[in-house]
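Self-study notes.
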Amino acid sequence: MNRKELAPESSPQAAYGAHLRKVREGFAWTQQEVADKVEYASSHMSAVETGRKSPTLRLSRRLDHAFGISGAEESFERMWREMKQGSLLEGFPQFIGYEARAAEIRLYEVGVMPGLLQTPAYAEALAQSAVKRGVITPEQADERVSLIAERQMVLKRQSPPLVFVVLDEGCLRRPIGSPEVMDAQLARLVEFADLPNTVLQVATFDMGGRRPFDLPITLLTMPDRSLMSYAESAQQGHLERESTSVLPLLTAYHQLQAEAPSQAASVAMINQFRKGSP
């Protein structure tokens, strides 16, 4: 049997594969036995072990379960997250960590629903669209959807943050997925607005130049009341933690909330979209 020598220092994928081989051989299991336990093809497992194919979050969790190392320092999920964060936009991995601990979250979104409010079907439709355009692989699409679901856990923690959301009207008008997907997504917005710790508003097109922001932005207030902002372009993300830079953005966000229709008016507008008569 040919045994390909591994070079774990050559890439994160190779390091992951070398770790998989080490753990597998420690259990005296063949690749086929591991493949059977995690319900993947043996050819796929071979490609991951030799660094020819990138692992996914789903596979990593199944491997951890099979080897009994879920949550451990040497877990495959931990390695996957380290790999994934290395390929994310600059600032985004740090932002996710702060977002999960924030006392208050303020966000303004343009064009698509923000990740914290996306339904699984809406997130899947966006991800599959990116796959069809050749932007990401099917495996990366699964990872993207999983990451969104994990970020939304901040809304379900024991002491959830106050969350203020202002959506550009285009978020409501842009169809993503089937009509059923959009209807469920709009229903999700109404449910979100009804929570005791949230405020949802729609920045209508007729606000025109009264909008202080042209691009999406997120503002975080941490438990110690420190402030930070996060914004990104197609190429990079930027996390700003200097209060002197963030305070003007917070003032502008308050101005946006004052100019936008109230939550009651915004929810009524969303319901009109659901009826097909915005």
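Second protein, same conventions, sequence then structure:
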Amino acid sequence: MIRTPVCDLLDIEHPIALGGMGSATNAALVAAVSRAGGLGALGCHYLTPQQISERTAAIRQETNKPFGLNFLTFDTREDSFAEALELRPSVMQFAWARPDQDLRAYFSRAHDAGCRVTYMAGAVPEAVRAAKAGADVIIAQGSEGGGHVGWMGSLPLIPMIVDAVGPVPVLAAGGFADGRGLIAALSLGAQGILLGTRFLATVESPLHPNFKQAIVDSDGHDTQLSEIPDIAAGLVWPGAMTRSRRNRFVERWSGREWALRQNRVEALARLRAARESGDVDEGPLSMGQDAGLIHDIPRAGDLVTRIAREAEQILTQKLTQFVSKPN
């Protein structure tokens, strides 16, 4: 079994984590990942204190293993954040802070509640900022990932962040979907991986079945970076674009963002209806380029075990053939 120092830090068995993907996570998915020995994470974006309390309780009914509560720092409700601290999860997770926000204030409150702290960064300066503020783990996120991402690919970004924030441990995110990805991340200096898109296509994922199938059917080339889903939702993310499946909705407004802003209310209503009905051509689907590596819809716990097993086999059986013994 592959075990890295971050496993001891977070009290998990496998260096595999679930991304805190807002409405794309639920108690069943979080619990399944944690129960299998990974680190589950509940996206708390825009949840009320009562919703956070109820969903945390539902997770704890399913498992006593560690999990995280994830917040968008730039748009965190104080009452929701305070409720999360009262619940004392094993890990408090943060991402996407505005430049003027004091990360140390958030991290200190989490530490005072007995929580470990992770911070997701898509650039070296942001990772260094979080490490200096006291983050226990940095998540280096490459632009291959789904949803909101920065501009640098995982291959150069991960070792750059590892070098910049050491000895703070790093998890790699953006384009990882299997045991090969875990071994690649370890080779780049990370101590594990965080996956989003791969966990969207699981039995426990709250996505409509049509969207799960769209991920499975993808060849990995059908995504694009844009602001279109955020414009429709009326959101402004600090320095991020969103990677989503290229469909009729995105193509309709591409190059016509001004018109989307003008017709946002109507467009958002259609978007929400499409999401509910499972219309993959009109509904937004945040997914990464690693969709091309996803070919099934397993149970989340089985997926954690599979990735760990694949990585161990690669490390112990395949890579050793490339190391020559001294004469």
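Instructor comment on the second fold: The chain has two domains: 5-206+297-322, 209-277.
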